[in-house]
Amino acid sequence: MADIMFAGIGGQGVLTAGKILIEIAAEHGKNVSWTSEYSAEMRGGIALCRVVVSDEEIGSPYPDYLDVLCCMNEDAYDKYVSDMREGGCVIINRSVFGEKQFPENVKVYGVDAMEIASELENQRGLNLVVLGAMIRATGMMDVNEFADTLEAYFNKKGKASDKNVQCFMMGYEKAEKMQ
C-alpha cells in the first residue's frame, strides 16, 4: 500500500496527476482512493490530492503519514514534509526550489519538471514529468506499462499527443536521487 500526496498550486496539474495515477493503477488491478482539497481560486491557490494505491482493501483515504509526497512547489514541501513516514519518498520539482536541507529519514528525488515540459513544448505536462519521477523513485509500477496505459488514457480522453508520454518518460529518466 502507498499513501501518496500531490501538492502545489492550482494550474500545475496537481489534481490531474492524482487522477491519472488512480486510473492507471486501477487498470492494473490495484485498489485506489482519491481525495482532493483546493482553495477557491481557479489558478494560483493551494491544491492537493491524496491518493492511496493498494493491493488490499483500503481502510481510509486519509492516512496519518505519507509514503510519497510529490511537491510541485517549495511551499507544498515546507507544509507537508513533516507528514512523511520514516523511509518515505519525496519528489520535488527542482525548477522552483531553492537550496534545502532535507530530513535524513526520507529519500528525496528531484527533477527539473518545468524545464523538461518547456523543452518538450508541453508546459501542461509538468505533472506528467513529476509522475515519471515518482514512478522511478518508488518503483510502484513498471515504467513501460505505465507509459502504455498513459497513452491509452489520453487517447480515450481525445487528447492524444506523443508529448504527454515524452514528458512522463523524461521525468522518469531525469529524476535524480538527491538524498
Automatic annotation (TrEMBL):
SUPFAM superfamilies: Pyruvate-ferredoxin oxidoreductase, PFOR, domain III (SSF53323). Pfam families: POR. Gene3D superfamilies: Pyruvate-ferredoxin oxidoreductase, PFOR, domain III. The keyword Ribonucleoprotein does not apply. Keywords: Oxidoreductase. Residues 10-173 form the Pyruvate/ketoisovalerate oxidoreductase catalytic domain. This is 2-oxoacid:acceptor oxidoreductase family protein. It comes from Blautia celeris.
